[in-house]
Write a structure and sequence with these properties.
Length: 668
């Protein structure tokens, strides 16, 4: 007798025994197959998140550089750069202007009374006070690809602003009346997901209250329409529709991640041509009035990002949230005396004072992420907010007599995820966020017992149903494409590091050396060894042929040199952010001098040596129509990726994939 496996002859087995053995073999094979798919999915997911958070970190570094640059240039300095003047105009002088004066100035800048609705306009018509029937008409119109007229958009935003100003920083919702409530996470401009939620769960109403937990905008193509619909529902149901601010309801984030660009593309053309700047300006202000959190039945805290060990809801409830037009740039209080205080930071001249304690309250509630490790530390992965551990969650919930934290801010494969022993619940409502099949969207339903129930979905216009393997392959291809962009952007640096390890110029290094260089140069937390087959060729001895890892060339239409070409390509997103800040009238173009100044600012930020002659040559060659101005589209069109093996050119640009704007390459 023993515990070993049976060695019974198959011919001696009964039919039922053979069936059982076959079932066990199939089950074992299937489990291994599923485990391999899951391993591949996690690696791919890691790539997408690493690239996404790396971009957010770059944005914060860039804006910290902007702030530092402004801090060290006096307001009266006559030679101040145009960019510095433009950046200063991104924020009001909140300390010297009363709310009444600010309101009057904003109404003047965003006045809609003189705007006419043209006879050729085919979108929805609305009147105020707005009604449910009008919102239903808007939904139908948006589904057919129509836009809301600039006049109606501005009027709606003014109405919303007036109501938001009356709300506290922390809303209080209840299930006592409707006996239920729904919580939605990030939508990021994916209107099909919002329509899916409304289809499955019903439209907001007194009997069907909703909490939308921030990040309505950026990344996706229909951020404007989502914001308009949510704001419209808030107008007719202010006690049943709760709108929390996310880290992307922020003008500086909108400059980089697509919302400003979307507004420009929709309200700077055709019959809306003159009104884009007004719409941008008013959205910026409305976002700053959104509440920072919502508490359900005094038991559940709903906030976009999370908490930290310093989070104090009482303190948070008493600040002036409107001061934070951008959470990335804290307001400066000139009323504080030059010696500052315990909670304020001053510069070397005692000119500017920042209330760090207050700023951190706002930053943490919008930007933080939970981690399994105990304690609280800076969120270095994103570059903003905190990482908070289970002990921090228990402490903050206990301090405020709460039972659960519901937050969003992170894409989850199933659309939701519990952490911290069930005390933190993440919900993410944008399905197919990274790529078709990358994740499900979800929303939370709760009754009066406040037990979360999850509804998952995937909104897609694809009629063909894909297998799990096919779906994963599509997601992997997208991840590899994104990685190759990063690799090409750092080609020179990678080759320099590879050659340091290849003293004999064999073109070969070990897998470990290759992985170490990739991680060090690209600064992405990715299991490089696992993904090497998709990025680089390996010889029969298992050595990496490192030149195959960087087999795309970045070229420019004119001979400005590989250094500046690769530098600008690598930092094109940062340059676009600078471009949009300098484009004060939102015309989509800047002068040659302003473009050259933007390149100088970028070079200073990244500590790169780019000569003025190189910049001037680049600017002249990019100005393809020779009108003395540079459109950012001209800048993108000036670059190509070239495959040296095939000689084919790969166009660089942007496209909308699964509702999300992303970089693409197209063979020509």
């Amino acid at each position: 007798m023993g515990c070993g496996s049976s060695t019974k002859n198959p011919q001696e087995m009964t039919k039922s025994e053979k069936s059982m053995k076959a079932a066990l073999l199939i089950q074992r094979w299937y489990r291994r197959y599923q485990a391999r798919l899951e391993a591949r999915r996690r690696v791919t997911w890691n790539i997408f998140q690493s690239i996404e958070y790396s971009g957010e970190q770059d944005q914060l570094k860039l804006y910290n550089f902007f702030n530092s640059m402004i801090d060290h240039v006096a307001e009266s300095e006559p030679g101040k750069l145009k960019f510095q003047r433009a950046l200063n105009q991104q924020q009001y002088d909140i300390w010297s202007t009363s709310q009444q004066e600010e309101d009057a100035e904003l109404e003047k800048l965003t006045d809609f009374s003189s705007i006419k609705v043209e006879p050729t306009y085919e979108g929805p018509h609305i009147t105020f006070p707005i009604t449910l029937e009008l919102i239903k008409n808007m939904i139908d119109s948006f589904k057919n690809g129509h836009m809301l007229h600039a006049k109606y958009t501005l009027q709606l935003l003014h109405e919303v602003r007036n109501k938001l100003k009356l709300l506290p920083n922390i809303n209080h919702a209840t299930t006592n009346i409707a006996k239920q409530i729904t919580v939605c996470g990030d939508l990021h401009g994916k209107i099909d997901d919002l329509f899916m939620i409304f289809y499955k769960n019903g439209l907001p109403s007194p009997e069907n209250p909703y909490i939308f937990n921030g990040d309505f905008v950026d990344r996706g193509p229909n951020s404007v329409e989502i914001a308009i619909l949510l704001f419209a529902f808030f107008l007719i149901y202010p006690n049943e529709v709760y709108l929390n601010r996310g880290n992307h309801e922020d003008h500086i984030m909108n400059l980089r991640y697509g919302f400003i660009k979307e507004v420009m593309s929709k309200y700077r053309v055709g019959i809306f041509k003159k009104h884009a700047t007004k719409v941008v300006r008013l959205f910026e202000d409305v976002f700053s009035w959104l509440p920072l959190a919502t508490i359900i039945d005094n038991k559940i805290l709903v906030a976009h990002g999370g908490i930290s060990d310093k989070t104090d809801l009482t303190y948070l409830g008493n600040i002036d949230r409107h001061k934070y037009l951008s959470a990335l740039r804290p307001p400066v209080d000139e009323s504080v005396d030059s010696f500052g205080s315990n909670n304020h930071v001053t510069d070397d001249d005692g000119r500017e004072r920042i209330d760090v304690q207050e700023w951190r309250q706002v930053l943490d509630i919008l930007w933080s992420d939970p981690k399994n490790q105990e304690g609280c530390r800076p969120n270095t992965f994103r570059g903003g907010g905190s990482y908070f551990g289970p002990d921090v969650t228990r402490k903050i919930l206990a301090k405020h007599n709460l039972e659960l934290l519901i937050r969003s801010h992170e894409c989850k494969h199933e659309g939701y995820e519990y952490t911290h022993d069930g005390l933190v619940l993440t919900v993410f409502s944008a399905s197919n966020y990274y790529e078709q099949g990358s994740n499900k969207g979800a929303y939370i339903k709760m009754d009066t017992d406040l037990t979360p129930r999850f509804v998952q979905y995937s909104s897609t216009k694809t009629t063909r149903k894909l297998t799990a393997k096919q779906s994963l392959s599509i997601v992997e291809e997208s991840a590899v494409r994104d990685l190759r962009f990063k690799i090409v952007a750092h080609k020179s640096t990678l080759m320099d590091e590879f050659k340091k390890l290849d003293q004999k110029n064999t073109g070969l290094i070990t897998v470990g050396e290759w992985a170490q260089v990739m991680a060090g140069v690209l600064e992405l937390e990715i299991p490089w060894r696992i993904f090497k087959e998709k990025l680089v060729q390996v010889d029969k001895n298992g050595l990496v042929m490192y030149e195959t890892c960087v087999d795309l060339d970045v070229v420019h239409n004119q001979s400005s040199g590989p250094s500046i070409t690769e530098t600008l390509y690598r930092n094109k997103t940062n340059l676009e952010t600078i471009f949009r800040i300098m484009d004060k009238d939102n015309s989509g173009q800047i002068s040659m001098d302003e473009f050259q100044e933007a390149c100088k600012i970028l070079a200073h930020h990244i500590h790169s040596q780019i000569s003025e002659d190189q910049i001037r040559d680049m600017a002249r060659s990019i100005d393809m129509n020779k009108d003395g101005y540079i459109d950012f589209n001209e800048f993108l069109e000036a670059f190509r990726l070239v495959d040296p093996n095939s000689g084919k050119t790969i166009e660089f640009g942007t496209a909308k994939t699964n509702g999300k704007t992303k970089d693409t390459v197209n063979m020509v």
